[in-house]
Structures are given as structure tokens and as C-alpha cells.
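Changelog-linked ticket: 2-acetamido-2-deoxy-beta-D-glucopyranose example.
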Amino acid sequence: MFSLLLASLASLSSLAGAQHLFDRNLAYSSPFANSPYLSHNTHALHARHVAFAKRQIDGPTPPQLGDTQSSEGFVDEHYPTFYGGDFSASPSIYNGGINFTHSVASGDPFDDSVLLWTRAVPIGSQLPDQSIPICASFKIFDNADLSGRPVDSGDAFTSYDVDWTLKVEANNLRPDSHYWFQFSDCTNSSTVSPVGTTRTISSPNRWFNAYGVAAHNTSADLFLHLGDYIYESLGNGAKIGRQTLGRELATIADYRLRLNQYRTDDDHEVADQAWKAGTADSNDTALGCSFSPSGACFTDRKLAAVRAYHEWMPIRQVDPDDKLRIWRNFQIGKLLDLTMLDTRQYDRDITDYLTECLAVINSIADVTNRSLMGTEQESWFYETLSESKARGATWRVVGQQIVFTMLNESGSLDVDAWDGYRSNRNRVLDHLYTNNIGNTIILSGDSHANWVSDLALLLDPNQTVTYNPLTGEGAIGVEFAGTAVSSTSSFGAGISPANADKISTVLVGANTDLQWSEGSYRGFFTLTLDPHQANATYWAMRNVSASAQLRHVHEGNANLGAFPSATFNVKAGANKLSRPVAGGSVMAGVLKVQGQD
Ligand SMILES: *[C@@H]1O[C@H](CO)[C@@H](O)[C@H](O)[C@H]1NC(C)=O
Ligand SMILES: *[C@@H]1O[C@H](CO)[C@@H](O)[C@H](O)[C@H]1NC(C)=O
Ligand SMILES: *[C@@H]1O[C@H](CO)[C@@H](O)[C@H](O)[C@H]1NC(C)=O
Ligand SMILES: *[C@@H]1O[C@H](CO)[C@@H](O)[C@H](O)[C@H]1NC(C)=O
Ligand SMILES: *[C@@H]1O[C@H](CO)[C@@H](O)[C@H](O)[C@H]1NC(C)=O
Ligand SMILES: *[C@@H]1O[C@H](CO)[C@@H](O)[C@H](O)[C@H]1NC(C)=O
Ligand SMILES: *[C@@H]1O[C@H](CO)[C@@H](O)[C@H](O)[C@H]1NC(C)=O
Ligand SMILES: *[C@@H]1O[C@H](CO)[C@@H](O)[C@H](O)[C@H]1NC(C)=O
Ligand SMILES: *[C@@H]1O[C@H](CO)[C@@H](O)[C@H](O)[C@H]1NC(C)=O
């Protein structure tokens, strides 16, 4: 027993250097790394951990050198289960077995690094002691057999503080390469996670040589989710066997639970119709604070959502001092710049969060100083577009949350999209036209329907070019907007293709630059780019329901039936959809100009 006590003492000295094991897990810096009240203080976590280890060796009769007595000096307080009866393996980290409950994920690739994610939950019915961290190792290899020396490896701690999430950065990777990675239990290398595969983007100075169906049936190099990723409301999950909380999300525990749920199988991410200080049903005002049963103010709610988001998503914190910044740019070879914007949570001026303010927002939609992105992000966006052209990247692909093109149906506009921020939209278009920045493709989420448009300046009084919707002449780019993965159509829940097409026919007739509209099918689209052209193929899922027994996609039974509903081509330098649009025919939805070929 004496030797065991020594092992504990010895571990204490090594613990002093162990703080990096907390820091290595990027989930602890969520959401605001340098903000004392809003991030985890890993010094404090480390101190808590060391105090625990001390507790394990401090007793009423401190052990003496040369002591041959058994462990009577030892007071185990109330945490015996997490060591079992055996203290030999590691006295200061949990060794009771771990479960990688949510498999693995990776994201935010650079040309030399990528983020790896998992969740390591202690096995057992009891929650572990809050001061005992769990240690997981990661290894990343350049081959699918995980053989040879790993390209990068390391250990990191996780704990209940971050919902057992673990997010590490794997470094020293080669550009434009595939990698395979796996996590294991530091105390038992036989306990391993599923193997994940990932890839880096190409370095800006080199050429880029190149959910269910997207993963199974496409060979995409990058997957973009444009939102909504999660919903905070009750929704229709119960019907398809996904249990819901029973109320709208408000607290950190609520958001963690929902992200957890989505990861076992989409403005939201925080709450519906979000802008910088409120949402459809919560404000920073007195009313906001009585919003939820937990009494959460909007700000509390937003912080909870952002914190859980960073814990659960394999993305980097772009700027540790910039509270909410997720907008950033990826220079992918000389082929493209992928510019990701936050047109929702960052610094957005007020939207129509209540039906009664729709008229107000409509009346201010053209006000010059209204911004969708906030001044800082907006200027950064224009500079990024200009720099991308200056460095000679062929394409500028802009990933953002809401539909850019005007969708006006007899005077009815969705002012929660760019239609509510029309002068901001004109500034974007002006920047492209004035600086002659071509080959811009805007990708949009949010709308639960499919839309494809030429980008054309329609409202600017200074407009000197005239857009011709038949030829595309006068456009400055294109927009591909995608529908929802599973949630219901904005044209009406369960709407049939024939009924959706009636609405689409009106919309493509009324909106000059809208070239295709489809509102019945759920799905996704692929975008394939080379230096000469870009193709977008829209995929329509035949059935988004799973069979009744299905709980995890990995278990099989997913309905993977899908068909390509429309394919669009854009030629480099053309700045418009190739004519005839979609080759003149589509399998679903309505083209402005049908059947010319
Ligand atoms: C591990 O987690 C999965 C998913 O939550 C669960 O089904 C399984 O029972 C867990 N295994 C153990 C040993 O706790
Ligand atoms: C180590 O992990 C393996 C696989 O999960 C398990 O079968 C084994 O019992 C574990 N060993 C110990 C000592 O917990
Ligand atoms: C938000 O605040 C405004 C102004 O105080 C108030 O009129 C409105 O009812 C509030 N909305 C919600 C959903 O709390
Ligand atoms: C925008 O301009 C209007 C009218 O000049 C002013 O009332 C409002 O405060 C300004 N808003 C912002 C966000 O600067
Ligand atoms: C929307 O369309 C109506 C005609 O249906 C028109 O009067 C109105 O000006 C349009 N709105 C905008 C912002 O262009
Ligand atoms: C139109 O041009 C004038 C003069 O260049 C400029 O001051 C104004 O901001 C422009 N308007 C828009 C909407 O861009
Ligand atoms: C785009 O589609 C055209 C027509 O099918 C094809 O010739 C071309 O290779 C495709 N280009 C890319 C980058 O997918
Ligand atoms: C979709 O799949 C579910 C579950 O397998 C099935 O009950 C339903 O009939 C299917 N719907 C259609 C339109 O095929
Ligand atoms: C997608 O791949 C799955 C699994 O390989 C297959 O069952 C399914 O038929 C494929 N779907 C399409 C649209 O090719």
C-alpha cells in the first residue's frame, strides 16, 4: 500500500505539467477563450484536479516515509467508484472505462491542420466526480489501416464541464490529403472510438486538383451546412421517434441535449428569427427574461446556445477575443476562396421577429445604415472578395445562411432574408460590379425550399447595366439556395410536387432573376468546380422518414432513395447560369424558361 501512496505523490509532481491536457481540448475555450466569466478557466480546472489528487493522499494520519501500514491514513471521501478497488493504473485520471457515445467528427480544415471531435463519456450509472477528468488519446494516420507512425497524436482531458466533448487540433498535415483518425482511452488502449476520415484543403499556393446520401453517394471534398442546423422549438420530432425536451430550449443543458440528439442521427442554432438582441419569442427586455421556465434572458439563452455549439461542433474559434465570430475565409488553392459569413447571430439589425412588426421591417428594409452582418464583418467581406480576385483565385464561393435574391410574391417578401436588408444587398452587388469581381457563387440555407438565380442588380438607382433574364446578360454571379434536410417545406408541410409547382410558377414569373424554384422535396445539392466551369446538382430525397425501428443511421434502414432533380452549369467568366438553364429541363420544380434545347 505504501508504494501506492508513492504513486499518488509522484503523480502530483507530474500533474503540475498536466494543465496542457485541459488546454489541448479546445472545447474548454468555448465560447470566448479570453473572457474570464465566459470561458472555462483551465488553471482552475487543473487546480481542482490537483486538489482532488491531494485529497486522496491527505488523511487524518499523514503517511510517513517508511510507513509499512496499510492505507489507514487515506480518506477516500465520496468518490470510490471511479477508481474501482484498484488504484494502480492511474491515481489521478478516471480509469473506469469510457464510451465514445457520439462516434467521431472532423471539421474546419486548413491546409496543414484539421479539428477532430469526439465525446468520451464515463461508463457507469453514477456521474463521476466533477474533479476527475477523463483522458483520451488521438492518433491520425495517412492510411486507412492506421498502420505505421501516426502523423500526429496526443492526449487531452475532458470532463463534465464541457459535456464530455473533446475537440483537438491535429497538426503537421499535408495539404489536399486524406487522413484517418481514432480516439482511445488513455488508461486502456483497447477501448477505441470508430475510425474517422477527413481531409485537408489545398494550400493557397497550389492548384486544387479537384448526411446519408451526401456521404454515401457523393465524393465531395467539403461538406457545408448552411443552417438551420438545430431547432430550439418542440417541432415534430416525437412523430419520427426523436424525443423532444417538452419545451423550447433556453439553458446550456437544453442546448447540449438537443445537439446531442441531432448528432445521433438544422437562425436557429440559437432561436427562430434571431437578430443581435432578440428572437421571435425572446428579447433582452423585461418580457424576454420571463420567456422560459428557467427565466433565461435572450443574452443568457444566446450564450448557452453558442457555448454548446462550440462544444459539439468541430469548428475553430476564429478569434478568441471576438465573442461570436465564426465568419472566416478558406483559400482553397488557386481554384477558390470559400468565404463563410454569419448573416444571423453576429451583429444583425432587427428582423421581423413578430408578425406585427412585418410592416415596420418592410418600411425600413431600404434604410441605408441597416446591416445584416454588422459593419466589421461587412467591410471584412468586401475586402475578402477583393483580395480573392487580387490573388488570382478563379471562384469566390460565399456560404451564408439566408436567401440573397429577391423573392417577391405580389408584394409579399420574406424580410427575415436579404429582402429585409435591401441596401445591404445592394452594397454587396455594387462591390462586385464596381470592382469587376466575377465568378461569385452565393450559397444559401434557411428557406426550406430550392432556389436558383442569376445575381443581378435590380434596385440600385445607380444601375447602369440591364439584366436580361432570358440570356442572363448583365448578371454578376449566381446563387444556389438549398432546401432542408428533413424539416417541412416553406410552401406547406407535406406539399405535393404538383401543388408546390403551382407556387413556383408564380414565383419564377414574378421575380426577374429567379430561374428555378422547387418546394416539395427535401434534400441537398452538390457543387463541383474546376477552373473552367461549375456544376450544381440538386438531390431530392424520395422519403425522409426512417423506418420505425431506426434510431441510428449507422444501424441501417435509412431511406437512401434519391434522384437528381436539376443540374445547373456556370462557365468561368460568364457570371450567369449557362443557357438553356438546367439544360432546359428538370425532374422537379419549375424553370423560368422550360424546354428549350
Ligand atoms: C455507449 O453509448 C451508447 C450510445 O449512447 C449506448 O447505446 C451503449 O449502451 C453505451 N455502452 C456502455 C457500455 O455504456
Ligand atoms: C479495456 O478495454 C477493453 C475494450 O473496451 C475491455 O474489454 C477491457 O475490459 C478493458 N480493460 C480494463 C482493465 O478495463
Ligand atoms: C421585445 O421587446 C419589445 C420592446 O420592449 C416588446 O414590445 C416585445 O413585446 C418584446 N417581444 C418579446 C417576444 O419579448
Ligand atoms: C440609421 O439611420 C436612422 C436615420 O438616420 C437612425 O435613426 C438610426 O439610428 C440609424 N441606425 C443605426 C443602426 O445606425
Ligand atoms: C414587390 O412586387 C410588387 C408587385 O407585386 C411591387 O409593387 C413591389 O414594389 C415589389 N417590392 C419590391 C421591394 O420590389
Ligand atoms: C449612387 O451613386 C452616388 C454617387 O456616386 C452615391 O453617393 C450613392 O451612394 C449611390 N447609391 C447607391 C445606392 O449605391
Ligand atoms: C460540368 O458538367 C459538364 C456537362 O456535363 C461536364 O462536361 C463538366 O466536366 C462538368 N464540370 C465539372 C467541374 O463538374
Ligand atoms: C416513407 O417511409 C416510411 C417508413 O419507412 C413509410 O411508412 C412511408 O409510407 C414512406 N412514405 C412514402 C411516400 O413512401
Ligand atoms: C446511395 O447509396 C446507398 C448505399 O450505397 C444505396 O443504397 C442507394 O441506392 C444510393 N442512392 C442513390 C440515389 O444512388
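Closing comment: Example verified and attached. The pocket of 2-acetamido-2-deoxy-beta-D-glucopyranose (ligand 5) is lined by residues 408, 410-411 (CB under 6 Å). Residues 1-17, 69-91, 205-210, 547-556 have pLDDT under 50 and may be disordered.
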